[in-house]
Amino acid sequence: MKIGERPLYKFALENNKMRLVSFLKGNIMTTILLIYLFLASGLMINSLQLLALPFWFLRCKRIYSFFVGKLNYMIFCWPICIAQWWANIEIHNISSPEGFQKAGKERALVVQNHKSQLDWVAAFLVADSISLLEQSKAIVKKLVKYVPVFGFSVWFLDFIFLERRMDRDKPTIEKVTKSLKENDGLYNILMFPEGTRFTPARHKRSQEYALKNGIQPLKCHLVPRTKGFVMVTQELRNSLEMLYDATVCVRGRKNPTFLDMLQGKPAIIDYFVRRVSLAEVPKDESTCKQYLYDVYQEKDRLFEHHLQHEEFPFGKSDPKYSTYISKKLPKRQPPLYVVLCLSVLSVMQLIYFVYFALTTGVLGVLVAIFLIVVSIFLLFVKILTPKST
Fold first, then answer.
1. Distance, CA of 304 to CA of 132 (rounded, Å)
2. How high is the pLDDT of residue 82?
3. Phi, then psi, of 359 in degrees rounded to 5
4. DSSP state of 85
5. pLDDT (0 to 100) of residue 310
6. Could you tell me which of 135, 183, 126 has the C-alpha nearest to residue 159?
7. How far apart are alpha carbons 30 and 24 in whole angstroms?
8. Does the first or last residue of the chain, that is N or C, have fewer Cβ atoms within 10 Å of its Cβ?
9. What DSSP assignment string belongs to 176-239?
10. Cα–Cα distance between 323 and 124 in angstroms, integer?
11. In this predicted model, what pLDDT tens digit does every residue of 322-354 receive, in sequence order?
């Protein structure tokens, strides 16, 4: 028998496959398994990264950066693989032809808005598409340093951890920027000037702050914090070449979370990038602050347009961006292969631990340790999730 042009057995196989995938994506045990595979493989990689530290103390920074970058890429492959191959998250990158041509070939500061938990995943996917993920840096909250596996890995990669207190953050920024000045390779620095994700309560406080300080309030974003931006652009003015102004928006007015991604829930994310020479960023502190405010006014306009039309203005819809084009990022196979290999090693490790526990009678201890680690990881996910959207 046939259904349409397909034999009945093929139709039945595809139907059962869809049911199985749907069941797995909504199953809590699948989520726990993914967390275990990530934590187990990540801790193995963190151990290897520790072995690279002597190269740092011996001032063999090229060798150190090479090994740490490759090892970090293995960890970064997890969110990329889960996003693209498990949750079917689509990223549509919108930029000018020159922006697509130059991306990944120049040092850049990426200034990105912060609306959902998957903003950083979108940034990772774009960086991976231009083969620059393993040498990407970011300016993040100090709390991220203590996230199991991920926090350790980005500490090795010279991420800038801030406490949002300039008296404490200034020495940190100066230390890392000094290290970056000595780096003669390509890299991107990702920055979220808003400092935290958008919520209605935070937006209300942000608007009150703007009105009190003579700043034009933003409709869709929080008022950006300027001190970190000013310091980085001043310190790295001779090292960085470009400013990539990235605006991210999820279609359907959604605010997906990291747990949504783990549960296989799809999303379509538009990633709009304006490429600006860093020479255009003012050197003077006050005018540099105003420059960032102006950047966010344009972000607000772009984001509001997306909310109304489900797309950013480009091509014929906006003369200002008439040359801009949209490209859907393809699913990259290298991250999938890396994750599959790490998963096999982690499963083998699990089998060994189970055998060891059964033969020595410490199964309860190992289960307790595993549940504690998973609980800590989920706690960080909960802490980093906005309480209102």
1. 30
2. 93
3. -85, -20
4. I
5. 92
6. 135
7. 6
8. N
9. HHHHHHT--S--EEEE-TT-S---HHHHHHHHHHHHHTT-PPPSSSPPPP-HHHHHHHHHTTTT
10. 25
11. 999 999 999 999 999 999 999 998 888 878 777
Q: Name every residue whose Cβ is closer than 8 Å to that of residue 171 and which is 6 or more positions away in sequence.
A: none
Say which range, 18-27, 233-242, 328-337, has the weakest mean pLDDT.
18-27
Task: Report the distance separating Cα 369 and Cα 375, nearest Å.
Answer: 10
Q: CA 10, CA 242: separation in Å to the nearest integer?
A: 52
* DSSP per residue, 268-286: EEEEEEEEEEGGGS-SSHH
Which ranges of the chain would DSSP assign to H, the alpha helix? Answer: 8-25, 28-57, 61-81, 97-102, 119-129, 150-156, 166-181, 200-212, 227-235, 258-262, 285-309, 333-360, 363-383
Q: Tokens 């990633």 sit at which residue? A: 271
Whose CA is closest to 271, among 287, 250, 248?
248
Distance CA 389, CA 66 (A): 40
Please state, for a pLDDT cut of 90, what percent of the chain lies above it: 43
Q: Do strands 325-328 and 90-95 pair parallel, antiparallel, or not at all (unpaired)? A: antiparallel
Q: What is the mean pLDDT of residues 240-250?
A: 94
Whether residue 23 is predicted with pLDDT greater than 50 in this model: the reply is no
